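Q: I'm building a small set of examples for a reading group on sequence design. Run inverse folding on the following structure and report the sequence directly after it, with nothing in between.
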């Protein structure tokens, strides 16, 4: 007996919900239109009423990931009164924890084809997070340091982000634990901040 189909007005959200659950459980490779439709209890052609292309559905799923990450960062930073270096450490920890707890979603979120496509204005969701990183990097660096030009702060923030991304990926694979002999990424996060910002004052 066929499963009852959800009302059309609810189908869009249902498909995204199913996609989020699927990427969480099985990874980005499992996100086919046919499999999402099957798990949503609709025909394999039904998703195209709301998502004409596979890329648009993947973008909607990735948007959920960026929204959750942004919410975590906002909660972690609180009222923003901590010094910039402390906020960067907190942001880095929130980023790494999200990446390690949600590997499938994390992989999906940073697919270049999704961000480049412009679907659902993903760049409007992802770039403010990078903008916050740039702002904190600029504030954390010495005011009388000639390297503090905005363009350079952006470059340093990009390098720090790449460092965090590498830590997340290698930690998920178990490579860093094996190489460093530790089960805590905190020293790696601290060292990454020191490498890009200079040693913390008083340490």
């Amino acid at each position: 007996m066929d499963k009852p189909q959800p009302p059309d007005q609810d189908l869009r959200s249902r498909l995204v919900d199913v996609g989020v659950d699927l990427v969480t459980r099985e990874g980005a490779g499992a996100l086919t239109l046919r499999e999402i439709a099957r798990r949503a209890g609709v025909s394999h052609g039904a998703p195209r009423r709301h998502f004409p292309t596979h890329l648009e559905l993947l973008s909607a799923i990735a948007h959920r990931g960026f929204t959750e990450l942004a919410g975590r960062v906002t909660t972690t930073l609180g009222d923003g009164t901590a010094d910039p270096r402390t906020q960067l450490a907190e942001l880095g920890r929130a980023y790494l924890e999200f990446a390690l707890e949600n590997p499938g979603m994390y992989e999906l979120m940073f697919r270049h084809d999704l961000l480049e496509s412009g679907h659902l204005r993903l760049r409007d969701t992802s770039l403010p997070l990078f903008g916050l990183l740039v702002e904190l990097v600029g504030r954390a660096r010495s005011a009388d340091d000639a390297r503090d030009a905005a363009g350079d702060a952006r470059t340093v923030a990009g390098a720090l982000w790449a460092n965090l991304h590498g830590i997340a990926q290698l930690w998920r694979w178990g490579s860093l634990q094996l190489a460093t002999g530790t089960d805590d990424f905190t020293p790696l996060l601290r060292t990454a901040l020191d490498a890009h910002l200079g040693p913390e004052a008083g340490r």
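The radius of gyration is 20 Å.
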